[in-house]
Request: fold
Amino acid sequence: MQEPITLLALASYEKGHDFLREAKRQGARVLLLTSHSLQHEAQWPRESIDEIFYMPDHNKQWDSAQVLAAVSYVARREHIQRIVPLDDFDLETAAKLREHLRVPGMGETTTRYFRDKLAMRMRAHEAGIAVPDFVGVLNDNAANDFLERVPAPWLLKPRSMAGAIGIRKIHSKEEFWSWSDTLGDERSHYLLEQFVPGDICHVDSIVYENELLFACASAYGRPPLEVSHEGGIFTTRSVEYGSALEQVLLEANARVLPALGLLRGVSHTEFIRAHDTGRIYFLETAARVGGAHVADMVAAGTGINLWEEWAKLEVAGGKAPYSVPQHRMEHAGLLVSLARQEWPDTSHFNEPELVWRMQKRYHVGLLFQSPSHERVSQLLADYTLRVRDEFHASAPPKDRPTD
Reply:
C-alpha cells in the first residue's frame, strides 16, 4: 500500500477550505503555510490540517527568502511531496520552493505563463492564438512604435497582479509617458495592450496529465475592469450549452492550456469576444480556481467542486488514475456587490432558484441555479436592479490586493 503523501498548501489569503478538506479525505498529510495576520481571524478547517505554520507578512506579502528558509527548515523533518498555492499571489512562491526542494510540479519558467501577463501573451501569440495587440513597455522605441501603430485607448497592465487590480486605461501618448515617469523603475513590470471593446468570458477547467477533462464556459455581465473602475455590480453566468459561443470558447481554451504547458491542475482562463468582429481573443489565464465565488457558480451548475477535484488530482500526482465525476448540465448565475449596510438583510429575496447567499460584512452575494439559461439570465437582470436600489455601494479601484 502506498504511503500517504505530505502536501504543503500555501495561502497568503484565507481560501481553499474545500481543497484542504478533500486533500485530507484523500489520505494526505496536510500542512498549511499562511500569513501571520490571519492567525486569529481565519476560520481554517483545522480538523483537516495536520500542522499550520505562520509567516510574517505585510498586507499578506511574504519575503521570499524567509519563506524559502522556513519551508527548508520544516523539510528537515517533513518529507514534502506536493506544494500547492491556493491563490494567484502564491504561485511564484510555490514554484521557487518546488525548484529548491526538487518537489514535482510546475517550475518557475512554466509558472510565468500562468502568472506574468506579458509572458502568457507572448507564448499564446507564438502558438498562433489571437491576443489583443500588446507590447512590454521597458524599451522606449518599442513603446513608441506601439503608440504610433495601435489606436488609443490602451490598457496599462501590471504583469503580475490578478484580475483588474492596478489596470489603467490610457487615452493618449502624453498620458502614457506621464504614467511611465510615475512608474520609474517599476515600468518593466508593466505591459501596454490594445483596448478591445467586447464581452468578457471565462472558462474554468480541470487538466490531468495534459488531458483536458472538464471545461465550463461562462460570461460576465459587465467587464470586471468596468466594475472595478466605474463601480457597479459583478455578475457572471454559464454560457448556454450547445451554443456557438460555448463551442468557440471551449475550442479556444483547448488550444491555450496545452500551449502554456499546464500538465495537471485547475485553471481559470479569460477571453474577450470583440463587439465589432465577434472574434475571440485570449486575455489571460491562471493555474488556480477562479476567485469571486466563481467556483461556487460552477458547482451550482455542474455539481463539480473545483477545489475538491484539484485536491484529488494533486494527491494522485500522475501516479494514480484520476477522472472527473459525472456531472449535470444546468445553468447558474452569480451576483456580488459591495453594500451600504454592514450586514445586508436579503431574506425577502425568495426565488426558488436562489441557492446561496453571501454572509460577509458590507457585501451582497446571490447565486441562482436553473435548467433554463433564459431563467438565470432574467433573474440576474432583475436582481441586479434590486440590489442596486436596496444595497449597492462602490469603492475606489484597488492598486494592491486586499482581503
Observations:
- The domain at 133-194 is CATH 3.30.1490.20 (Dna Ligase; domain 1).
- The mean pLDDT is 95.
